[in-house]
Amino acid sequence: MSVLLETTKGDIVIDLLVDYSPKLCENFLKLCKVKYYNYSPVHSIQKSFSFQTGDPLGPLAPQSDGGSSIWGVLSGDPSRRAFPALFHPKLKHIERGTVGMATVPHPSDPDVRLAASQFIVSLGDDTDFLDGKSAIFGKVVEGFDVLEAINSAIVDDNGYPLVDIRILHTAILDDPYPDPPGLVEPAASPPPSRAQLDTARLDENAADAPEEDGETAEKMRREREARAQALTLEMMGDLPFAEVKPPENVLFVCKLNPVTRDEDLELIFSRFGTILSCEVIRDRKTGDSLQYAFIEFEDKSACEAAYFKMQDVLIDDRRIHIDFSQSVSKLSDAWRNDTNAKRQKQAGRGRGGWGGVRELEKWRKYRNEDDDEGPSYGMVHNEEELREKASATK
């Protein structure tokens, strides 16, 4: 069970410990599902120790109530904003990237601690001072470069970054919990509210970036959503990695005559260089040509030469059209098949382990190598005590 947090510093993937912290995970999942965390600021950054987020308004907004559980959000009942947090005895703050709900003591029972929406992520190992205060429900499994960027951020005396760091979007892969009454998942991420915009500090690109028009802003939004969707496919196992690029040595040929065969195309295109595979795509049931094909060359330069020389050439009385392939399905299939085979072997069925590492490494050349009324506000403990502990770890 995983959740993707898209932040202004990059993407973070959190694995949820549903077997150990079911109610905490349910609360977090449902808040992500209704996009409650969108535009929540990162704050209370203690270098090599922890940071906190999860309140849509944050500590700079005087009208902030510190955040609410999903049950308080749906009911509007202030008494349901917080709920008792359970601390599993096996879960400790040992590793960097440990994720837990921020808690405060119950007003009438100090042995009970209450959680709402805010959560804490550890930025160092052995942050055991958080044990019993941050109720662990997950672990960061991807995005440690983002944690490092947050850890290195310039902050004020209260640990608030001088340049805004925010959660932009959340995505969940699988939700095992039934939706509470009244929960409606929005069709798209809602824009930030006026109150949230009023809390904005300096944007890291504001100083040197020109003001964007509507078309540019929309393009950037689509690109962010595309990156989030690609990472979701990676998390689901449909892509070997989110930044996978189509191969540069494969041509897409369309507008073929139905009578054109694989061997015909291979013979015609082989004058440009060695061909590794040439396949006319056919209907699975009838075997009829779908009038397009993929041709894989051994050498990229041969692929480029064929692209420039064969555009609009007549083959079997049809003027063909050529483009560079944008498909990554072959790469994904090779990786996925290798992964499944290894899983079967690991399960005792005689073949292959996790990850499809062999095929992933084989195709890694296509990766982009250039590619950041309830409880009080929500601090889980006394701020001075926290700073003293953080200072001791530096």
From TrEMBL:
Q: Which UniProt keywords apply?
A: Isomerase, Nucleus, RNA-binding, Rotamase
Gene3D superfamilies in alphabetical order: 3.30.70.330, Cyclophilin-like
Q: Please write the reaction equations for the catalytic activity of this protein.
A: [protein]-peptidylproline (omega=180) = [protein]-peptidylproline (omega=0)
Protein name as catalogued = Peptidyl-prolyl cis-trans isomerase
- Asked if the record carries the keyword Protease, the reply is no
- Supply the EC number(s): 5.2.1.8
Region called Disordered, residue ranges: 368-394
Q: Could you confirm whether the keyword Cell wall biogenesis/degradation appears in this record?
A: no
Any one Pfam family match given in the protein's UniProt record, by short name: Pro_isomerase
**Compartment annotation:** Nucleus
Alphabetized InterPro entries for the sequence: CRIP, Cyclophilin-like_dom_sf, Cyclophilin-type_PPIase_dom, Cyclophilin_PPIL4, Nucleotide-bd_a/b_plait_sf, RBD_domain_sf, RRM_dom
Task: Classify the main location.
Answer: nucleus
Indicate the segments forming the RRM domain, all copies: 249-327
* Comp. bias intervals (Basic and acidic residues): 381-394
Q: Which superkingdom heads the taxonomic lineage of this protein's source?
A: Eukaryota
- What job does the chain carry out? PPIases accelerate the folding of proteins. It catalyzes the cis-trans isomerization of proline imidic peptide bonds in oligopeptides.
A molecular function GO annotation: peptidyl-prolyl cis-trans isomerase activity
Record domain PPIase cyclophilin-type: where: 10-172
